[in-house]
Write a structure and sequence with these properties.
- It contains 15 helices and 16 strands.
- It is α/β, with parallel strands linked by helices.
- The protein has 3 domains: 43 residues; 239 residues, Rossmann fold (3-Layer(aba) Sandwich); 149 residues, Rossmann fold (3-Layer(aba) Sandwich), CATH 3.40.50.
- It has a 7-stranded mixed β-sheet with strand order 9-8-10-11-12-15-16, sandwiched between helices. Strands 1-2-4-3-5 form a 5-stranded mixed β-sheet, with helices on both faces. Strands 6-7 form a two-stranded parallel ribbon.
- Helix 2 packs parallel to helix 3 and helix 14 packs across helix 15.
- The protein starts with a helix and ends in a 16-residue tail after the last strand.
Length: 539
Amino acid sequence: MSRSFGSRLYDATWETLLKRIITCTVVVALLIAASIIRNEITEDAGSCAEGVTESGGECIGVNGSGYDWGVPEIGPVVDRIAEENGRLGDTYVTVAMLLPLQPKAKAERQQLRSEVQGAYFAQYRANREEGAPKVRLVLANPGKDYLKQHEVVPDLVDMSRSRHRLRAVTGFNLSLATTEAAIRSLTEHHVPVLVARASAGSLANAEGKEREFKGLARILPTNQEQARALADTGGKRKNKQTVVVRDTRADPYVHSLSVAFQKLEEEEPGPDGPGTMTFSSAGISVKGDVDNQFRPMVDTICSSGADTVYFAGRSTHLRLFLKRLAQDDCAGTRFTVVSGSDAASLKNKMSDDDWAQLLDDSGAPKMTVQYAAPAHPDAWDTEVRAWQDQERKRNGRRPDAARAPRSLRDPLNELARLRQTAAKAGGTGPLDLADSRTMMVHDGVRTAVEAIRGAKLPGEAAPTPEQVGNRWATMQASNRVDGTSGRICLTPAGNAYNKPLAVVELRPGEKTAPSRLGYVGLAWPQGRKQAEDCVVRGS
């Protein structure tokens, strides 16, 4: 018996509806799958953020809205920066931190956290002080080793001409040819630059000459100044006692440090010692076969009669050299190894086993390792107490710390304010002042803020970039900046004038990480203390 027309119509309707349901379900499933795949591909390629684009597996650009660049260690800090930026109205200036923001190694990520913390603490404090304009802080990534600086510098130049009023770029934590290229490009476009951590002499204007980089300032003494300061602190050594070990890789930091150390040797009295010894590394953080190169070198040093090694190389390779030197008996010679400011990164790269290798069977250090650090948190308290002890010996009673010279007292007070600011700001992760990064970057941003405020004319919302760049040369005497790393007095060329360095010594026998970097004393590039009036003379 045939089915009725109504029954057939009912079945057809349900069949059509079922097909539509199945089709919709499949489409939704495919869309969800496509979304998941797209997200996974984006994550694999390095998903980026506002103002930041993917380039060759890196995220290059400028951001101040809380992007952590895929580095969890700085997540809490960039969140605070975003909150601080969100508090600002329309009248603000921007300060940018330009430095590689996606390091792979754990030690480098920890160092990055310290640097970003320093910048944020300076911003937080500035925005709660009297004085305008307020400060917006952004992070700019030029890629590993600044190799993609040419992709981000145009963004910064545009920001200097836009409503964001970028008025200073600081950071610059590596002395590389690409770093110099970034500085040159920025200053050629009239964007003020302040170098906070890089120490190569090629990143500085020469005194008494037309400025190569107009609008450039730096708050860290150059490698040449560091070498002079270390020589003054360590006392005169005979030439035959010393040997220079240097990396041959093209690296402005290494080159300027090796030149400075070789000049020290030339000035040392007595007959020549062993000739300069070289090794070749493949990169700043690349171990390669460097340890194998050190094997015969250490044998030669042990036979040379030298007891002091000037090491012109990066901290990655200094660590390997120290371990190799510790493994050789060298007839009981206790070596002194001297290096530059990059050695401040050594602590974060040393394992407990590394530290143990630097001790003999009795628990005593096998060698003395010293370097010129940009700063050390124990410096000012130690120096003020030493001054009190000297005055007590001289006058029979111990004066109050408030009467200490201002060159000691001002940085001590600034360090106390930094710690107070860190406590108030809170929520930025572990704070480690021992490697000097937080202190130096804080001082760099603070110096930039003071220059911006000092350059602003009454009635203006903000100074021009050129006005800020011209301001560097006036920052001395009463216009100096009191930094946690020392008082910052800038020369007409924009260089730090006789700024003290902290001589730091490795103390492998100490149990806690901070105490393994022991403060030895202050070192002065000119061999004498900074003038109390902070007036630049003879530059």
